[in-house]
């Protein structure tokens, strides 16, 4: 359940550390929440120095982990310990080269196979 | 940058027993669980198409049972390089054409999932047990996919690094004051 003003961790090595969501893509009237697999527009609140991405840059990201439990088709519920996103560009390619943490298999069906194939562990 | 150890994701959360079944079923039952994959395209056919279309530097990584993800993701990862955006898109088109040809005459044609077709820098064709990545030259250098799938035992190596890093060190007294106790 990610909404505007939510702080998220960044699960890749693109240089950003913390993001704040400012818009959920596809939401109606800014009222809908974002779940795993949704694309959000976010601003970088904290970044590692000397990387291509800097603080207060507006970028797009796809959510890969949420604290709110997420029900899969086969009845399994997955709940992570934090909210995290992977930064992508306009075309859907990830900006970083490596992804950290476990990624849910459901991202594959939502056309994010690139992120799933970069992941160290797929749930 | 550390990997999953420092991420805090699901830290201390152990998969409950019923989740193991999901992991096990996706590991052991790869072939029966995804019957379409074996029919969509075989590895040999993929390699032939890629050599026909003159894709550069074709590499196959077996990431099945013993490899990364524990076999949950796919059986094989095929990576190919295209000389330009147009070439990358052409590689994808050739593979899709081959898949269509193979299934000619049947009532339903199962097509794989294609991502990144419009952009052209990185096109992924996901046919279940074989995932084919077609990248442009610079994108391939940037993402460096070989190093992800070459090291298979990455969870084990990170545990070993942790053991060696937690070594008891002797406190060195660099100040002028004498030590009060050893």
UniProtKB/TrEMBL annotation, chain A:
GO cellular component: cytosolic large ribosomal subunit; plastid
Pfam family, one: Ribosomal_L14
GO biological process: translation
Keyword Oxidoreductase belongs to the record: no
Any one Gene Ontology molecular-function term assigned to this protein's record: large ribosomal subunit rRNA binding
Gene3D superfamilies cross-referenced by the UniProt entry: Ribosomal protein L14 (2.40.150.20)
Cell compartment(s), UniProt: Plastid
Keywords: Plastid, Ribonucleoprotein, Ribosomal protein, RNA-binding, rRNA-binding
InterPro entries assigned to the protein according to its UniProt record, in alphabetical order: Ribosomal_uL14 (IPR000218), Ribosomal_uL14_bac-type (IPR005745), Ribosomal_uL14_CS (IPR019972), Ribosomal_uL14_sf (IPR036853)
Lineage: superkingdom: Eukaryota
Main location: plastid
Cited NCBIfam families: rplN_bact
Family: Belongs to the universal ribosomal protein uL14 family.
HAMAP family according to UniProt: Ribosomal_uL14
Protein name: Large ribosomal subunit protein uL14c
Organism lineage string: Eukaryota, Viridiplantae, Streptophyta, Embryophyta, Tracheophyta
TrEMBL record, chain B:
Keyword Mitochondrion applies: yes
Pfam families listed in its UniProt record: RsfS
UniProt keyword terms in alphabetical order: Mitochondrion
A Gene Ontology BP annotation from the UniProt entry: negative regulation of ribosome biogenesis
Keyword flag Isomerase: no
MF terms (GO), sorted A to Z: ribosomal large subunit binding
InterPro entries given in the database record: Iojap/RsfS/C7orf30, NT_sf
Location of this chain's protein in the cell: Mitochondrion
Cellular component per GO, a single term: mitochondrion
Domain of life: Eukaryota
Protein family membership: Belongs to the Iojap/RsfS family.
Record's protein name: Protein Iojap-related, mitochondrial
Organism name: Paspalum vaginatum (seashore paspalum)
Lineage: Eukaryota, Viridiplantae, Streptophyta, Embryophyta, Tracheophyta
């Amino acid at each position: 359940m990610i909404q505007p003003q939510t702080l998220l961790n960044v699960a890749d090595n693109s240089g950003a550390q913390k993001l704040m969501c400012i818009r959920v893509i596809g939401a109606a009237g800014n009222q809908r929440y974002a779940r795993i697999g949704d694309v959000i527009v976010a601003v970088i609140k904290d970044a590692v120095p000397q990387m291509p991405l800097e603080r207060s840059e507006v970028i797009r990201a796809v959510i890969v982990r949420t604290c709110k439990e997420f029900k899969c088709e086969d009845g399994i519920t997955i709940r992570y310990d934090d909210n995290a996103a992977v930064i992508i560009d306009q075309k859907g390619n990830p900006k970083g080269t490596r992804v950290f943490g476990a990624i849910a298999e459901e991202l594959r069906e939502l056309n994010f196979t690139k992120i799933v194939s970069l992941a160290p562990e797929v749930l | 940058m550390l990997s999953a150890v420092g991420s805090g994701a699901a830290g201390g959360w152990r998969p409950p027993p019923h989740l193991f079944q999901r992991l096990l079923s996706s590991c052991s039952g790869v072939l029966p669980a995804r019957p379409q994959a074996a029919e969509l395209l075989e590895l040999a056919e993929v390699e032939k198409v890629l050599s026909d279309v003159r894709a550069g530097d074709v590499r196959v990584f077996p990431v099945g049972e013993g490899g990364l993800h524990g076999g949950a993701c796919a059986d094989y990862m095929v990576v190919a390089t295209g000389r330009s955006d147009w070439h990358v898109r052409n590689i994808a088109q050739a593979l899709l054409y081959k898949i269509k040809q193979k299934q000619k005459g049947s009532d339903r044609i199962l097509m794989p999932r294609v991502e990144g077709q419009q952009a052209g820098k990185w096109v992924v064709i996901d046919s279940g047990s074989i995932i084919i990545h077609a990248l442009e030259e610079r994108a391939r250098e940037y993402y460096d996919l070989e190093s992800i799938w070459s090291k298979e035992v990455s969870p084990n190596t990170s545990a070993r690094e942790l053991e060696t890093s937690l070594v008891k060190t002797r406190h060195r007294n660099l100040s002028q004051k004498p030590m009060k106790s050893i």
